[in-house]
Amino acid sequence: MIQGVLSFIAGFRLMFAKAELRIIVWRMLGLLVVLMVIVTAGSFWLLDYLAELWLPQGDAWYWQLLSSIAWLLALLLSMVSGAIAYVALGSAAVAPWLDGMANRTEQFYGVTHEADQSHWITQITTSLSNSVRPLMGLLVWGAAALTMIWLPPLATALWTYGGLRFLSYELMDTTASRQGWDFQRRQEDLKQRRWFYLGFSGIAMILLLVPVVNLFVIPAGVVALSIPRKQLS
Questions:
Q1: Among 174, 158, 179, which Cα is nearest to 87's?
Q2: How far apart are CA 70 and CA 176, in angstroms?
Q3: Closest Cα partner for 172 from 91, 86, 79?
Q4: Quick one: pLDDT at residue 58?
Q5: What is the pLDDT of residue 180?
Q6: So what's the pLDDT on residue 8?
Q7: Looking at residue 218, what is its pLDDT?
């Protein structure tokens, strides 16, 4: 798990240390800002809905405590949902730039995967199609969380874990596609390095909740996973 956290941090540092990567980040930043504003608005709507659903009513002293806990859980669940939506939409919207970042990162370490030369629309639709099966898995976790909607702690825990798994698939998409991995191969890598990806997506999720910093999570994740594993061991 710690290795996953350190890997993400290494990608974040490299992204800003190399001018060749920074220039790509600035190109995609405007689109990421627009997506973040839209997703944030949706998150506030979800927070308001969950607060109305979960906040208990009563005059006893413990109702105030229960209300505080319910509000915090509603806030956490809405923020996690917003983070998931942002990564899913953002990864597809800036897919051509992410491939360029991955290509340049690999070149720093002597890796020679060819850059994706297909049209940017094709790259975006490919990224979206790669999200379908992970999204189905996320919906399963979402359904499980929905059945526990009246138990806010359990519902939040289920949705958060499902979100971490989905983030792992999304953040690995660019590098996995460059290596020709199908969904089964990605699934195998996720199982074999379960704790690595839990730490990797965990720190990504935390940073997605930090204003401004969250704009750089997607490119930082791609850069991190483009660094050869032997360089991180």
A1: 174
A2: 39
A3: 91
A4: 58
A5: 85
A6: 93
A7: 93
pLDDT at 121: 82
Separation of alpha carbons 91 and 29, rounded Å:
12
Point out the residues of the chain with pLDDT beneath 70: 53-66, 113, 115-117, 230-233
Residue 200: name the closest of 220, 177, 180, 179 by CA: 220
Question: What pLDDT, on the 0 to 100 scale, is given for residue 160?
Answer: 84
Burial 109-127 (b: 16+ CB within 10 A, else e): eeeebeebeeeeeebbebb
Predicted pLDDT at 77 = 76
Distances (CA, A) of 133 to 100, 147, 213: 25, 22, 28
pLDDT of residue 65: 67
| Model pTM score | 0.84
**Cα gap 173→127, rounded to integer Å:** 7
> Which amino acid type is present at position 3?
Q
